[in-house]
Amino acid sequence: MQNVTVRRGRGRPKLVEENDRRNSIVVAAHQVLVEYGFAAATTERVAARAKVSKRGIYELFANKQELFAAVIREHRHLMLDLPRPEEENIPLVDALGKIFRLEIDEKGEREREAILNLIVRESAQFPELSDYLYDNGILRSREDLMEWLAIQARKGLVVIEDETVCAGMLMDIAFGALLPRRRLKTAPDRAARLIHIRKRFEIFLRGVSPNL
């Protein structure tokens, strides 16, 4: 019987190593971007934080813009939990609470606040970053929310004249409150904020209710 050498697994350790290196770089880039901002977040700083060479970064990311996009992609789940399960059957105000992840734990809340601040700050200073994120489908928050609203409208649960406007209103309601001008240091403050966001959602839903 002829011996057969199976070569399929030879590249796997290298692939695992590359994925680990990529993850380390993205984690380090996130820390550096939050701390220094896009302009001062040099590849030297990212490389030092990730304990890799600059060459190791450029083997995986073409430029700093691509690295920024990878950080946003890794954390975009903190912004919106969409799409929702097809079988979900809960009050719309509860669905919006889940979509905007109002019950996220404190650690996740801090991470969300940091990534939202990063996106808002850097998009204002470098509009090309925002264009890159949208053009490459990395940020689809508004579009995903528009699709969810369209589904609710088809179900007859809401009457939506302009999905773009309504999605923008909901994002302003939630993200405007989730990015306070001062840091909320106590649990009661954070709990009060969630109550206020939920009340705003209720006001919005009364405005689009087909029963009014």
TrEMBL record:
Gene3D superfamilies for the chain: Tetracycline Repressor, domain 2 (1.10.357.10)
InterPro entries xrefs: Homeodomain-like_sf (IPR009057), HTH-type_TetR-like_transc_reg (IPR050109), HTH_TetR (IPR001647), TetR_C_Proteobacteria (IPR039536)
Domain HTH tetR-type intervals: 19-79
Keywords carried by this UniProt record: DNA-binding
Domain of life: Bacteria
Pfam families documented for this protein: TetR_C_7, TetR_N
DNA-binding region residue numbers: 42-61
Protein name as annotated: AcrR family transcriptional regulator
Native organism: Rhizobium herbae
Taxon lineage: Bacteria, Pseudomonadati, Pseudomonadota, Alphaproteobacteria, Hyphomicrobiales
